[in-house]
Amino acid sequence: MNDSVAGIGARVLRREDFRFIKGRGKYVDDMVLPRQTYAAIVRSPHAHATINSIDSSAASAMPGVVKILTATDFEAFGGVPCGWLVNSQNGDPMVEPKHPILAEGKVRHVGDPIAVVIANTRGQARDAADAVEVDYSALPAVVSMRQAIDNPPAAVHDDAANNVCYDWAIGDKAEVDAAFASAAHVTRLEFTNNRVSPNAMEPRCAIGDYDTSNGDYTLYTTSQNPHVIRLLMGAFVLSIPEHKLRVYSPDVGGGFGSKIYHYAEEAIVTVAAKVLGRPVKWTSDRTEAFISDAHGRDHVTTAELAMDADGKFLGLRCDTLANMGAYLSTFAPCVPTYLHATLLAGQYKTPLIYCNVKAVFTNTVPVDAYRGAGRPEATYLLERVIDKAAREMKLDPAEIRRRNFIQPEDFPYQTPVALVYDIGDYEATLAAALKASDWDGFAARKAEAKSRGKLRGIGLSCYIEACGIAPSAVVGSLGARAGLYEAATIRVNPTGSISVLTGSHSHGQGHETTFAQVVAEQLGQPIDNIDIVHGDTARIPFGMGTYGSRSIAVGGTAIVKAVDKIIAKGKKIAAHLMEASADDVVFENGMFKVAGTDKEIDFGSVALTAYVPHNYPLDEIEPGLEETAFYDPANFTFPAGSYVCEVEIDPETGVVEVCSMHASDDFGEIINPMIVEGQVHGGLVQGIGQALLEQAVYDDNGQLLTASYNDYTMPRADDMPNFTVDHQITACTHNPLGVKGCGEAGAIGSPPAVINAIVDALGEYGVEHIEMPATPRKVWRAIHSAKN
Amino acid sequence: MSKTHVTCTVNGEETEFLCDSNQTVLDVLREDLGLTGSKEGCGSGDCGACSVLVDGRLVCSCLMFGSEAEGTSITTIEGIADGENLHPVQSQFLKHAALQCGFCTPGLIVATKALLDANPSPTDEEARYWLAGNLCRCTGYDKIMNAVHAAAAELRGESA
């Protein structure tokens, strides 16, 4: 590392924080455009109903109301598109019903948008929205997935028989069944992976603007991937060509997946801005967020693990119902299939795996990727069933995992579920986690807790993740309707400062720091001379955005590739200036040098020469110093790690306290350890939140009972301990930085560690499983039903 | 609808505004006074992103009407620093990377200042309970707590 430039590996303070700590961040809702109007959306109070009529006459007459739009105003436009096609095992394509911008004759979940009221102030718009009268005929609601397919009370969509979107499978069922037939022991677990609401602290917001003089649209939106929104909304919904549509996502207040997707409100404000000739802003309130942001998880699964007498895994057989909600959100179909079932090898040499996934429509908010997206569900499945198996076979939880680990010499390792892991060292992260958590000393802590009347438990989880979904050709063959590369431009300005235009988007990840460290290191330039520009389709060449922990592995590599081009061109310029052959020029610590001589010239002089080419090889190269690279990875990256959680339970109340959580992760090379720690901490708390506190609860009528912070339990400061983390490193083999990604690991590895710890604490009561969230009520009941 | 004329002090400056009866202090700060540092995360007083000090007391500005601000002194995130000199709470949040997306940060910094004004030496439990009204979805609170304790120590003169 070059200390003077704060390069790779340095704990550089986050540069974006200087504006945030002063309240000077610039989020979409902070923006006020001249003559801006405000939109409020009339949403369905019913889970399932036909719309008989909409009467907006009273609302239209209310103060400040400018316009009211309903579905008829959107007839010329397409529906909200889905970005991934999954085929059923019989070859049929998934059922893909239209997802209208505003409900067309029928509402399918509480919160389904019906009409848009636009007024001069936010208060006027909301008051008038309350005055829009909609006459409904309520229909039976489809809520339970099992009921939806076995005994459907209604059809969410007429073209989806038994409410099934697709019936997909991976693996050879006959071979897996044969392995089970010969197994010495089979462990079986049925469970639900609870539905959660992402809850980025910034509610979604969108402002549409239209320039009547040239027909240019601008959409300001809280997105993780503005170019994707431009593509989806421009090409598939509104038919606006890219050059007439700018999408800008400035500071965005967290996403966790929920701001990947193209939402109807973005199309609504864009259309409305043209209709009105005035900017239109819509800002979600928190309850709207609960009933319109895509939810996460919501799987009902049966998992069976077959083992020989020594606890060696022979086969894994799984059956999952995955809730899609009422419509297919942008990436929803791929989450339970290609991001879940393909991860079911975990860190283990399970030779045979079969997984059947049925995706189910229900009258609930659409479900899509949420921090981890399929991988937390896969990890929870594996790590819970393995823990149960260890208990049944009287093996130490660490030992049963060790006996089945893929070993360092096995890489590259072809799993039976399509993926090829490039590298890892699962023993290393396990050993680090056991040591840091003093696994061997647990019995004494349990005894001490017991002396205080508390039940103490310890839980282990070993996860694997697949980040940087790629390559495009492979994901295309699996149904992705987009490429999954990333783009970057390095613009060296005439006086040597550097603008890095990246297609990745930062909404908390600290890219303005991490990416600048990478460029500082590679170009040997002070970090203060480097700016990271992101989030604006008018300034960035192209970009697929940020999700799936892809930014450093894919976006960072695109930056490196563009830097390589800068250096290559710089060498030619330097060679000309130093009257040497470009082949003899090397670039080190910001200096171009002629190898084996004392001739050298600094980066800034080369930059200036490129823009003031008085003495320049114009016959060989063009002036200027700006390069763009698109990078399409050769493979996923595979972060992995081991987490250990300790809990104490008060048997009188059922309250679970997380006493400690240790995370040992292998993210490959680390650019900024401080930022990586923060990413892990945040993920851990989202995972602990899922395990102990959070659940989006629907009643039998499809009413969301948890649509405010009074009802949905978010993790708060007093619920959590501080954490310990460490990093073991095996460098990714197929990108130049050797990086893997760190954004989701915490949320993937922690839920099973927490539940395993709780089940361990309740071992004396014979409790074999407890469903997430493990609320005091559930834990208390488990203790007392066992007692009785 | 007639508007209410309000005179108060915002970040040390005498300020006048006209507000509708349904406008909250948060609405006035953000929409009328251009002070967009305070955020609306829930509008129901459950997330603390809109935290401000009113006459030194920690308040969710989404729960207070603009018309109730008459005669008060309000401090927002924009008034925490002394000019370009950061308040120790701000500098320790920066130093400890106690923020990620930054949306909850203004509220957390204001709430931490209020905590340390009231209790210069909070235990970890006291600090966590005080800040339990401020939701953060990014950091897991770990680095926030480190920053809070470091700021407390700095304000007590124990470290730079």
SSE layout and pairings?
The complex is a heterodimer of chains A (788) and B (160).
Chain A: H1 17-20, E1 37-43, E2 49-55, H2 57-60, E3 65-70, E4 106-107, E5 113-119, H3 122-130, E6 133-138, H4 145-150, E7 164-170, H5 173-181, E8 185-193, E9 205-211, E10 216-221, H6 226-238, E11 245-248, H7 264-276, E12 280-283, H8 286-292, E13 299-307, E14 313-325, E15 353-361, H9 375-393, H10 397-402, E16 413-414, E17 420-421, H11 426-436, H12 442-451, E18 455-464, H13 472-477, E19 486-492, E20 498-502, H14 511-523, E21 530-534, H15 551-578, E22 585-588, E23 591-594, E24 600-602, H16 603-611, E25 626-631, E26 640-649, E27 656-666, H17 673-692, E28 724-727, H18 745-761, H19 776-787
Parallel strand pairs in A: 1-12, 10-11, 14-15, 20-21, 27-28
Antiparallel strand pairs in A: 1-5, 2-4, 2-6, 3-5, 7-15, 8-13, 9-10, 9-12, 13-14, 16-17, 18-26, 19-20, 19-25, 22-23, 23-24, 26-27
Helix pairs in contact in A: 9-18, 14-15, 15-16, 17-18
Chain B: E1 4-10, E2 13-19, H1 25-32, E3 51-54, E4 57-60, E5 73-75, H2 88-95, H3 105-118, H4 124-130, H5 142-155
Parallel strand pairs in B: 1-5
Antiparallel strand pairs in B: 1-2, 3-4, 3-5
Helix pairs in contact in B: 2-5
